[in-house]
Every structure is written in structure tokens, then in C-alpha cells.
Amino acid sequence: MYPFQYQRPDSIPAAVAACQGEARYLAGGQSLVQAMKLRLSSSETLVDLAGIGVMAAIALEGGRVIVGATAKHAAVAASADVCKAIPGLAELAGGIGDQMVRNMGTLGGSIANADPAACYPAAVVGLGATVHTDRRKIAGDDFFTGLYETALQPGELVTAVEFPVPTRSAYVKFKQPASRFAMVGVFVSQSAGGVRVAVTGAKSHVYRATEIETALNASFSPAAAKAVKLSSAGINADLHASAEYRAAMIPVMAARAVEAALAR
Ligand SMILES: Cc1cc2nc3c(=O)[nH]c(=O)nc-3n(C[C@H](O)[C@H](O)[C@H](O)COP(=O)(O)OP(=O)(O)OC[C@H]3O[C@@H](n4cnc5c(N)ncnc54)[C@H](O)[C@@H]3O)c2cc1C
Questions:
Q1: Which helix (H) or strand (E) holds 164?
Q2: What are 116-140's pLDDT values in tens digits?
Q3: pLDDT per residue as tens digits for the range 169-228
Q4: How far is residue 62's CA from residue 75's CA, in Å, rounded to a whole number?
Q5: How far apart, in whole angstroms, are the C-alpha atoms of residue 172 and residue 260?
Q6: For 199-215, what is the HEC assignment?
Q7: 157 in any annotated domain
Q8: What's residue 179's pLDDT?
Q9: What radius of gyration, in Å, describes the C-alpha atoms of the chain?
Q10: How far is the CA of 77 from the centre of ligand 1 (A)?
Q11: Has residue 1 got a pLDDT over 90?
């Protein structure tokens, strides 16, 4: 690991002021510290967000669940508000990695990192969430822009994510067995505005499966999702799964998510 300076501000403005130039925010360190240990990443300064209590808050307000950026996965999974309002989101958080990762990893770190196989991006897009930063609000649909790329500007701090409460929702992933990242993960939500189906693990970044959305808007049933045949063009292929396999898995995971959502 290359040497670095460490700062632990106690407010959002102080964190943003400290994160200049080559400085980077440190959340739970689950991606960043590992990359630094391997010397794949270096920063002159790390700005630790753990001292900003307000950023870990979780609240249910007027039909929206607002999750602070430093809320740990374990806290989201255990939150009575999240379990009651958006059980699909609580289940997603409870299925990330292992207990240690869930005790350290954060919502903000997950979406800022934008791993193509991460679970939270599927909830952000699948629920039509809004990302709050220190300077603006970004629609979830516009947040993820590429492989490990987001709409965040240098030094921009994710402060919270606002999730609208759907009528029903669920997330199902086909896990990579060692890491539990998604080989294919599908978040399905149904609300007054229609059905959203967000897929992670299958392309450079999360996207909406519009063919499955159309089928589910006509009939919100597992059979309708499973009947959709998707092209493998543009789908990821790696040592874990071919593009054809992933393309075949997407309607299957969507069907399981619909089944889980209907069973609540
Ligand atoms: C063994 C293992 C298994 C995992 N399995 C899964 C899984 O199954 N599913 C899944 O979704 N994820 C998985 N993860 C990822 C994990 O859940 C974390 O969400 C992810 O690693 C980010 O970690 P972190 O929150 O500690 O952020 P950090 O590692 O501290 O930061 C990550 C990046 O985000 C930036 N950042 C952090 N917070 C903010 C913020 N508020 N605003 C702006 N930028 C910010 C940092 O500067 C850094 O660039 C796994 C990780 C490990 C190590």
C-alpha cells in the first residue's frame, strides 16, 4: 500500500472541503482498501465518512425510504422501516457478500464504485430511486454510466438515496458462489407507474430489461417473464458464464423475482 494522509471530518461540508485533488472518500473500505493493498489504487488523502453520523440514517418519509450513504448493508437488511416498506430492498442488502462485508460495506460505496456485478445498482434503477449528493439530485436511471463509471463529478459526495415505495418488489440473483456478487441479478418492482425490471451482472452496468417490463405490464406473472427470449448480443461473457447462459438466466431470475414479490 502506498502511504496516504487520513482525515475524519464530522460534517458533510467538511468532508467535501477535504476531498480535493487526489483525495478520495473512504466508506467501509471493502473495495477501496483492497485495491490500495494491491497497489491498484493510490490516494494522497483518504477522507473517512464514518464520523458523519447523519449519513448513516435510514428513514421512511411520505412514501419514500431514504437511506443514508454510509448505512451499512447489515443495517439496511435489519431496518424495520425498510423491511416493512420495501422488503425487496432489505432482502437485497441481506444477501450481499458475507456477514463481514455486510457489517462494513455501505450503500454509497457500492453505488459510487459501480461494480458491474453489484446488487444495489439494481435496486436504484429497479425502484426508480434518486441519488442525493452534496450538490444535486441525480435520477437513478442517469447515475450509472459505464463500467465502474457514474455521473459523479470529482469530489462529489453521495449523501443518501431516496427509494420510492412500490406496491411490491423483489430481487433475485444467480450468485457467483465465492463472492456472492451477481452473475445475473434482477430487481423487479410494480407500482402505480408500471413495472421496472433492472438487471445487474449482465452488461458493463445495470440496465432496464424493457422486453420483460412490457411482458410484465401486460401480465404480472412468473410465466410472462419466463416466456421472454433475450438476445445475447452485448451481454457479458467470462470464465463464470457465457453470454448465452446469462441471457437465458435473465428471464428466469425475473420470473423468480415476480414469484417472490407476489408471495409477500
Ligand atoms: C468479499 C466481498 C464480497 C462482496 N459481495 C458483494 C455482493 O454479493 N453484492 C454486492 O453488491 N457487493 C458485494 N461486495 C461489495 C461490497 O458490498 C461494498 O458495497 C463495496 O465493496 C463498496 O465498499 P464500501 O462501501 O466499503 O466502499 P469503499 O470501498 O470505502 O469505497 C468504494 C468507492 O466508493 C467511493 N465512495 C465511498 N462512499 C462514497 C460516497 N458516499 N460518495 C462518493 N463516493 C464514495 C470511494 O472513494 C471508493 O472509490 C463484496 C465485497 C467483498 C469484499
A1: strand 158-164
A2: 999 999 999 999 999 999 999 999 9
A3: 999 999 998 889 999 999 999 999 999 999 999 999 999 999 999 999 999 999 999 999
A4: 21
A5: 9
A6: EECCCCCCEECHHHHHH
A7: no
A8: 87
A9: 18
A10: 16
A11: no
Q: How far is the C-alpha of 48 from the C-alpha of 18, rounded, in Å? A: 10
Q: Which one-letter amino acid corresponds to residue 41? A: S
User: What nine digits make up the cell of 155?
Assistant: 469530489
Residue 193 domain boundaries: 168-263
Nearest ligand 1 atom to alpha carbon 27: 30
Q: Which three cell numbers stand for residue 95?
A: 444477501
- Residue 87 alpha carbon to ligand 1 centre in Å: 22
Q: How far away, in angstroms, is 164 Cα from ligand 1 center?
A: 23
Half-sphere exposure of 159 (CA within 13 A, CB side): 16
183: domain CATH number is 3.30.390.50
What average pLDDT score do residues 36-64 get? 94
- Give the separation between CA 68 and CA 46, rounded to whole angstroms: 20
